[in-house]
Amino acid sequence: MLARLNRKFGYDERSAAILVFPVVAVLLVVAAYPILYSFWVSLHDIVLTRPLRRPFVGGDNYLRIFGDERFWLAVSRTTVYTVVTVVVTTVLAVLVALLLNETFPGQRILSAVLLVPWATPSVVNGLMWKWIYDPTYGLLNALLLKVGLIERYRAWLGDPDLTLMLIANAAVWKQMPLAALLLIVTMKAIPDDLYRAAKVDGANVLQRFVHVTLPALRPGLMLVLVYETMISIRHFDLFLIMTQGGPGDASFTLSWLIYVETFRSLRFGTGAAMSYVLAMATFLLSWAVIRWLGKRI
Amino acid sequence: MAGRPLAPRIGRAVLLAFFSALFVLYVAGPVAWLVSSSLQTEAQITAIPPNWLPPEVNFGNFDAILNAAERQVTYETRRQGDPATGGFLPSGAANLIPSLWNSLTVGLWVAALNLLLSVTAAYAIAVIDFRGRRATLYTVLATRVVPDIALIVPLFLVIRNLGLINTLGALVVTYLAITVPFTIFILISYFEGIPRDLYRAARIDGCGHWGALRHVYLPLSLPALVASLTFAFLTSWNEFVFALVLTQNVAAQTLPIVISGFVMDFTTSFSFVNAAGVIAIIPPVLMAVLFQRYIVSGLTAGAVKG
């Protein structure tokens, strides 16, 4: 009996090893190894314009970053951008989910339309909004002028106070659909009885939303918040296409700083150190959000 | 429903119609404007106030871009790109068709390999109770916590040392690192929803793990499999940062890279940029709408459990 159990156990383990091996091999080469390699790079003073001398400098790169005011500027830009993107995405996603969770003629067509931004490449998303914001021929100017909200055309992306918000708007447009889909699925799982009971108790629409829908949405909202934070904090494509960190330093975010430091200044050591700081921040942030929201469920 | 008074029902219909209109305007409006501008000549889209719809439908931009290779676009000759309007054809226009094929090739390889790798691993993690199961799952998911931008430097160095810079293979392997963890996550939630009794029955009938996967799990998870294929293809088709760093010329550049070149060339006519955008948007949007039901049920399988 024991021998048979052992054999059985052995078969499971052997199969699992064979089935999991290819994935582990691929991820070792293109994910785990680069992550560790990156750490090694971040401890050295590697500048590509001086390829032969790459001294070990320990934590110096990290110290240099924390003393660099560009870094702190980028942190504040990234924070503002991420918070705005995540909050607006989540609020819009809840509204869209409420709409599409209803049954009405045309609801299925709207659900198909919802996938369009999700499927749009970020480069096209960037050029599309850049074209809409265009100072001379853009639709935004024409629209606002027609409605009477502005008196003359403005260079939207050239306004340092607005740039970050306008890029965030493009990001929200693309990210909102997946968030809404996740929330719709969570909503569908709420039993109708809860709504009926609330109605019997005399709750109006708003009260039903606050006391029935929102609490039941918590798991979905948690997933959306963590996921959106993790991807917004690392956004890069839109910044390259739309503003390249400008005007001035108005859209100078962390990913943009890392790109400039690494591929324009060719300082790989500090670039890698910055990447590590961003990775750790993302990790700690998602962990904190999960803990914080997890406690409140 | 029939018993309810008329007034609230009308009120509900009006509200739904209003919010549906707002929704369509916000979600589809920008794309509609992109398509509309791509069908106008340079003179028409630079009119003030703008033409909301093309005065007449004109495929000249698409024609000029798609046939650029035959015309040898150089910096000097690109003004003739669109003789009707004198618009500037992007100097990289001839690269568009090759990059379209590159995107397609990479996308199909990523979709296929991603599914192959993820299905086996997800089955093992979801179904087999082996030592190190949790550790494997967490390790796989943890690789996605690191932002792409943080992987760029080391990945660039690794790929360069392997001599794979500017090859499609480098892109395929890199994209697998992005798609595999997410696909495994989706497939695990799906596999765990399949009744355990079916697995036991298959094992009693003499199936090994390979048999159980083939005869029980794969046939029952079609939506998740289609969602995974679509998701991997779209991720690969849309990816930008890695392709920017890992490719250098037309041998391996993908569509987003060539298009970003259009955008950042300040003399390029808007009409051409918009037409290029529309070309890049068509395959992924068609795919998403076509496989809508699979995508929704596949991508969201894990959401309810939280």
TrEMBL record, chain A:
Q: Which parts of the chain span the membrane according to its record? A: 16-40, 80-100, 112-132, 162-185, 238-259, 271-293
What's the main place this protein lives?
membrane
Q: Which SUPFAM superfamilies match?
A: MetI-like
**Domain ABC transmembrane type-1 intervals:** 75-289
Q: What Pfam families does the annotation carry?
A: BPD_transp_1
Location of this chain's protein in the cell: Cell membrane
Keywords, sorted A to Z: Cell membrane, Membrane, Sugar transport, Transmembrane, Transmembrane helix, Transport
Question: For this chain's UniProt record, which GO biological process terms are given?
Answer: transmembrane transport
Note the topology in the membrane. Multi-pass membrane protein
Cellular component (GO) terms are: plasma membrane
The family assignment reads: Belongs to the binding-protein-dependent transport system permease family.
Q: What is this protein called?
A: Multiple sugar transport system permease protein
Origin species, per record, is Falsiroseomonas stagni DSM 19981
Automatic annotation (TrEMBL), chain B:
Question: In which compartments does the protein localize?
Answer: Cell membrane
Pfam families assigned: BPD_transp_1 (PF00528)
| Membrane spanning stretches | 106-128, 135-159, 165-191, 212-234, 240-263, 270-291
What phylogenetic lineage does the species belong to?
Bacteria, Pseudomonadati, Pseudomonadota, Alphaproteobacteria, Acetobacterales
An example GO BP is: transmembrane transport
Keyword Membrane present in the record's keywords: the answer is yes
Name of the protein in question: Carbohydrate ABC transporter membrane protein 2, CUT1 family (TC 3.A.1.1.-)
Q: Has keyword Transmembrane? A: yes
Which SUPFAM superfamilies does the record cross-reference, listed alphabetically? Answer: MetI-like (SSF161098)
